[in-house]
Fold this protein.
Amino acid sequence: MAENRPNYCQLLGMNPLKESSYSLADINKLIQKMGEVWANESRNKQNDTEKRFKSERLVEAIPHIETVMADATLRHKEFTDGVTLLKGKSQKLVQDCVILTNGKKVLIPGVMDPFLKKLRWEGVKEDDILQLSGVSKDKPPTVVPQKVENAYKSLRTVDTFTTVELLNRLISHPNLEIGLTPVGYGTSLEELRSAFNDCERRVNSVRQDILPDQDSYINCLRNVKLIIQDDSLMNTLTAYGKCNKVLEPVISTIELESTGQQLQRRYIDDLLKTVPQQELDTDMALKILQQTCYKKKIPVNFSERESTMDRCPHCGHLVPVDSNSVYCVVCGKELKCVCPSCGTIQAPSNSVCMKCGFNFTEGLQKSKIHLMNINGALDKGMIVKAEKELQLLQKVYPMHPEIASIKTSIERSKADLEAMKKIFGEAYSKKKYHEAKGVCDSIVSKFPGALSEDLELNHKYTDAKAKTESADGYCRKADETDVVQQKLDYYVTAIRICPDHPVAKNKLMEYPPYGPADAECKFDNSKCIIEYVPPKESGDNEIIFCIYREKNNFPRVDEDTRPLAEVKGRSFEDTSIESGVPYYYSVYSKRWGILSREGCHIGPVVILAEVQDVKVENIEGGLRLSYKKPKGCTRVRVWRCENVKNNASYIELGVRSDTVYDDVGLKGGREYVYLFVAEYDIHGRTERSAGTYVSRVAIDTPTPIRNMKIKWNKSDGTFSVKWSSEHKVLLFSSAKKIKMPGTLVKMDDIRSWMKEIVPIEEYPDGMRFNVADGSVLYLYPIIPTGNMGVYGNEFMLANLKPFRDVEKVVSNRDCILTMTWPPGATAAKLVISDEEVKGEGDPNAETVYVRKDEYLEDKQIRIPMGKSRRKFINMFAEYEVAGERISSHGIALEVFSASCKKVRYDVTVGSVGTILDFVTDYGVPSLPPMVAVRATEGIPLKKTDGEIVWRSEGVTLHAGKATEEVHSKGFSDPARVRLFFENDADYNLYRFIHPLYGRHS
């Protein structure tokens, strides 16, 4: 049993986490005790043969157990192995947890006791298992305060989720007769509390036979009342109830589909997508589901990380793993290995990557070869070869641990080589071949392979070396001859081949050229022309002139000073001069690379540039000046003169340091001339430019349109606009509100920002135009004046779609409205009146708002008729546009109550006239306009079936009765005469009961 044996801590019933608490004497007592137990089990004939066999093997293992426990090292290893074993077995509990969104593992109630019984490990307690498994016996965090939870539970006892549902249930209860308008989620908390108090008083005061569930409602109202005065708790209760209502189908699905296996977060997210997203609070929903699954003992992983159990190939235990798990949490060995080529995580036993086919053994061998090549290339200074070998190494073994350090070494060597190459290149470009050869010799000594990798460097080095050696040869010839002129010729030849040859240069410095004289400066626009007198020997083609320039001081010139330019001739044009900056120039002669000892000098030279990009534009009440300040300019000054005869005085404007200045208060229609002067402060004195003149006529700005009126034409759906102006007016529109400074704007800017409206019909003071349905536009009346436009007040035009398919039904003295909502509408606004159709904002009308979600909940809008026999309703669809609530055109409805007053009348024809007697309900004050119609044959059934013989504007009643005397011959045969209401709408309030006469044959 020395191999593949059980752990001795488990056999003896010892807690492996408490090794220090067991002495050797205690362990020996346990061994003796368990040995007796095993011996009795092996001898007991009532046990099955398998158990007797196992017990006999345990008795045989007692000497080995005593040996292991007697040795301190072996005993410690046994306890360590016991901890590993116990930790592996305890990982099973992770599958029986609710893993919270923060990753905390909460154990489901009732799981621990059965697990300990199956474990059969004496001495191991519940706390030990919790410690090793990483799970907790805490409960998920509460979602809402306890008061809110109690109120919600009470609401569920009466099958409601929120306070709004509870109150609407009571308000709509037919037996309670609570005369309140139903509340909604948009109702303010104060109105909600008022409705709650009314409902509570009514519920407490009625008899139980009227409200059979009175006790349940009273208890519910009491619990809600505990939080009714706290705004925060009330809002929390509403959100909690709405969220629970949305989650009902989700919870039912989880209960139905749960099989005991731990559900993953992806499963929960897919379920949450099936409910209305606009009504879902995801954070609260997850907290509610955490508590629900904990109570219903459904294991779920709510964290973002996928969690499954996999068996470790080394220790054989089920351990929690995810896509990022590489090592076993029990034994610490590799669960998977990472491919160095593609990074794929896979089994450690693989010899070839399952994704890219990388051979782990061959890849390591190739990487060693590439490392040797890289180090060899760096030793030889072959940077390019080292970089190529590094690319091959990265391709074979992208995750090699030495790649970072190799990159650093290559970059450092490359930077040193590039710096030395740069010095060589500068020297070679200046034809300093001797210096270039010395630099390249240093490169070769440090980087031997550099010339073989860079052919251009190799070619230049060979050329510099050859020229230096050739110059050395001429210098040796000069040393060998005693003829002065021939010696000089040899040195000149050497310096022509290698201009920086030190020997030839030192000898020729004894024969410098003469310098130029009499330098002077001329200006041509922004160019500075330097002219000078060459020396007498300038006929020598070897002489050139070096131009040196410096700011604020004469340049210091020596053999190493780089000139601004080298020219031949008598002048030099400097086009790179800056305005306002004092320049100093020095001109020297140069022959055979040797400067003259003397030169000519001139300075300071200053160009005074004029003010640039000058613009004068019309603005409201004046002109806007804009310009660009020249570089080097200290300040810009501007003078203005009104271009009128006998008045040429200029006034200076206070432009200060601004480059844009508004010159306001000018007279429209007059021309103004502006003078722009740039000033420069140079060495304590001020210099001015000649100045720039610009003229402009200030426009006479018309009065902006402030009184525009817009009217919707119901007949054809177009719009008419009116304004008061003597000038031509253009109308522009924009889908968004545009802020424009002042009232004068460029027409080009207006046309780029907005769209001009093309009228259907134009009037002297307005136009008629069309707008697409459902659009919201901002209208801008513009009066064009040249290239500018006078901008008036903006007006918002909302051509929003009204409700469609509106239907009305009167039931139980309530008007029930249904309609089709246009896209984008957020609410319905109803203006209600008993007299006539009222418009928006009428103080004498009742206004009711219904949000779209409230309508979708009830599928209708209910308007109580009350005691009114007729109501006028104007319905508007409301939209949210740029943070504002805007209404569509109204739909007018006339609604009558279902009850009608019966009107009886009798016609009596006398000798003097005809008497009409009217009788109706006692409380009716008057009857609407009526007409009497006589038919030539039969009786009239409609107003158009005969001749109107009598008309009344209305009849006043007293106690429901009235008598009218009519002097008309049309009533001579009352059987052919009937009364009708002149307005058909009055039949919704009244019904005639016509008298019966004997019918004519």
User: Anything to note?
Assistant: The mean pLDDT is 83. The first strand starts at residue 97 and ends at 99. The radius of gyration is 53 Å.
